[in-house]
Structure formats: structure tokens, C-alpha cells
Amino acid sequence: MSGEIITQELKNEVDDLHNRYVQCIDDDDLESWPEFFTEKCLYRVIPRENEEVGLPTAVMWGDSRGMLQDRVVALRNANIYQVQWYRHIISNPCIHSVTDGVIKAQSNYAVFKTCNDGESTVYNVGKYVDLIVRDNGVLKFKERSVIFDTHKIVTLMVIPI
Amino acid sequence: MTSSNRMQWPENADHTAVPYYLFNDQDIYDREQRKIYNGPAWHFVALEAELLQIGSFKSTYIGDTPVVVTRGQDNEIYAWVNRCAHRGAEVCRHRHGVSEDGTFTCVYHQWAYDAKGDLRGVPFQRGLAGKGGYPKDFDKTKHGLRKVRVINYRGVIFGTLSDETPEIETYMGEDVRFFFKRIMNRPVEVLGTTRQYIKGNWKFYAENAKDPYHASLLHLFHATFGLYRSSQEGATLINNDFHTVLWAKGGKEDEAALEDVKKDKLRTYQEGTYTLNDPSLLAGKQEFDDGISLVILTLFPSLVLQQIQNTLAVRQVLPKGKDEFELVWTYFGYTDDCEEMRNIRLKQFNLIGPAGLISMEDGESTELCQKAIVSDGDRTNVILMSGSDTQSEGHLVTESAIRGLWKGYRRMMEL
Known about the structure:
The complex is a heterodimer of chains A (about 160) and B (about 425). Chain A has about 160 residues and is an alpha+beta fold. Chain A is built from three helices and seven strands.
């Protein structure tokens, strides 16, 4: 295997990336969310039932930071939905390989959603499959596939996962 | 009013004003299951492209009734109720797949059926060591699965539980047939499925899909990004009261228009609106000669067939009790799509579906209605945009198709 050694330091750095990413969303700092991605990137939120049989349809799909910014502008100004907050829990983060500076990583997530009625529900669970690169010294997602088990999307999905 | 007299249409209501209890009454729901879902209606069950291989199958529903659609060893499409003839257990427990040997075996006592739903084998039919077993006159041909009548119309599989359902072309009507064939004009390739679960009565969604009035008012994506939509040329076509085609010409969404938009740094809709950072989202191709960029075709009660720009999809409406329904989106392209076209579709799927930039609000509006109508069942809504009749109209500023929905609904419900 031509891969590079996975150091504890790198693991900590990737953990930090995951943590900052979900805090950005959960703290409703969505304008900063596209900054976690490289300029050309791939962000897709896809049901596991499609991914497993090789069908490409995703519910959110962006191949540039600009597209991700447009999603944020849309959800702030165009889309209609009730007030809602996410709380992400990340677990089992794992670096599979580091090859030519590209870190292949995977982790599980659960998103709890709380709306105006105050009830928190398990909104969406799945896994992140990532390609992470160093961009001007900072780790960013070149690809982030959000592969979700919860194919029953209640009401709608407006906030990215 | 008590439930019992809700089985008659109230005097203060017609198809311009329907009572809210229709959206929230268990007896009405039960009657819908009998009169509509078990009645003379065609229900979307699958795309043929979901069942390409011999032995392939898909589990779905007609109303509350679980059904399985299969491709038999003879290459024909079949469907049957997913309930073992023996003791009522669910036979097929997967959403989709391929049965290599073409049989479907109930796990409970291993009664085995073929793709047509005929009973092929029963364990211990003659007993064990001379004990037990079925009577000598037990006839396997009389204990098959309940069969569902199916038709493959232009690559779309419809099922019905009634023997009285007219032929599909008659059921659809002329305009619906025309636009149906326009989209299903050649073989399609399935690109994926998503599922949206909405806490509202299914008829709020039926109204929504027949309502061109709300489009530019609720769905603000195009307006926010300064992409004109409301001046569109279009029409509202109504067949057999409750089937509808809404179509519109966009004009601003083809390649030439995108160049325009880029040159202008995106046309501003009004002072202070936004521009797309990445306009490639809307960089489509005009793939139909007629220039129509939006078709919402609804075949009552369970199908929406849509083209929005370069997105093609069927939406299956599945009631889940009186105040919830599931919306199953199946996205497709054509088998002869080039890679570029396929990528355009995949990118534009951002516009539709449960997270669709221009469609996500439909779930929201349905829930808004459901929440608010609970307490005042005998009050009615107001469906008067563009008058009170149920005729086709050459524009989109109308609720005629919603009035048609209720007229057809009353007929089928015998209310």
C-alpha cells in the first residue's frame, strides 16, 4: 500500500474538522458552512437505498462552494419552513487511508431535530464518507458524501447535514 | 355534525367550498379506501424501468393495501396483494430486488408462490409420516395470492383492485394522455428514489399539485434569485374532472437564456435580491421542441408525473391514515441520455424532492393546513380563483383544477 502513515496528530486534526463542521451547523452559522469545502468540491446527501445499488440521485448535490452558498442564501431568503434546530452527534470517526495528501475518512452521525413545539426527534442518521485535503494549510472537504439510513424524510430537508 | 351524517355532502358546500372534516375524519378515510383505493381507479405502482430483469420485484401500496409488482419468467408484469393466502402474513419483505428462481415464499409456513401470485407449493401437504396434512380435495389453484390487475402504459405500471376500472386511456382523458406520452416518449432509466413523509391528509397534497396559483407565491426560489417565472405562458387542462395537466413555458431556462442571465450578472427581480453564485444549477437544455419547461400531470389519486426544466420524476402519493401520507419520488432520465444530460438532471434534482429548492415547501404547506383545520370540521375553504367552473383554461391563474378534483372526488366517493 502506497499510503502514508496515519499519525495521532492527523487523527486529532480530522476530529477537529468534524467537530467544527457540526458546531457550525448546529449553532446556525450556516454562512460559514461552505468554507469547510474546497472551491471545487462534491457535497451530496444521498439515501443509502440509492447509494447501495449505484443510483446517483441525491436530495442535495453541490459540486462547487458557490452552489453550497446558494443553498444557504435560499434557505435564509426563499425557502419556507418552520423554525428548527439540528443537533449532530458524531461517532466512530476513522481515517481509512492517506494517499497523495488525500485523507479518506468515515464517521457516523445522528441528527436530532427540535422544532417550535419543543419536541426533539431523531431526524436523520447515517454516515459521512469523506475525502479531505489540505487547502492553504487547513483541512477541507474535497468530497463529503452524507449517506443516510433514514430514508423517511419527515416534512422536508432544508438545513444541510 | 357527527361522523354518521358526514357521509352526505353538506348543503353549505359544493366544489368551490369543501368542508374541512374531509381532511380529518376516520370514516371518510375508510370510505376512501373502499370507494377510491379499492374502487375503479388506476394507481401508479412502478416504472417498468424498475423491473428490468426477469424475477425482479418491487413492494408498494395501493392505498392501505400492500402490493408487489413483479416481472415473471414469461417477461410479463404481474402484481398481487402482499398477504399470504394461508394466514395473512406479508410474503415479500423487501422493497425491491430480484428473485433468482422466480418464487416468493412466505417465511411463516413457507407457502411458495410464483411471480404471478399462483400457489406452487405447501409444506407437509400430505402430512408427515401419515399424520396431518391437508384434505385430499385441497386445491392449490384456489389458494393463490389476490391478484391485482395491471397495465403497462408507456413504461408506467398502473394497478387497480377493481374489475370495473375503465381502460387506462379512457380513464386518463385526451390532454392527460397527450402530455403523458410527451414525457414517456421513449425508454427511461431510473436514477433514484427519495421518500418524504408528510403529516397532512393526502388530499391537501392533491390540491397542491393542481394549484398553479400558489407556485410563484409559496415557492420563492426563482423570485429570490431574480429569475422571472410568473409571466409564463401556460395552461390548466382538466380531464374527467380530477386529472390535470398544468404546463408552462419558461423561456428563461434554456441555454440561450442562461447566457443572457450571465451577461446581465443575472437579471434582478427587484432591488436588493440575490444572484446565484453558481448559475450552472439552472444550465439546462431545451429537450422538448414545444419549449414547455414545466409539466405537472396528476392522475387521480396517486400519481404526479412531472417535468420541471430537465428534471423528470414520478411522485407517488400514499395515504398513511387520515392525517399523514408518504410521497415517494422516483427520478428518471432517458436511456439514451448522454453523460452531459445525465449530469444536468442530477444537478437539477436539487430543485425537486424533499430538499428541493422549489418544491420542499409543498410538504410544509400541507402540514400548515392540517394543523389548522382540526377543530372546525364543518367550516369550508374557498376555491374561487377564476370563477366556479371546472373547465380547462388557457392560463395558470386559476383554481379550476382543484374544483375539478372535488367534483371528481364526490363522484367516486358517492357523496
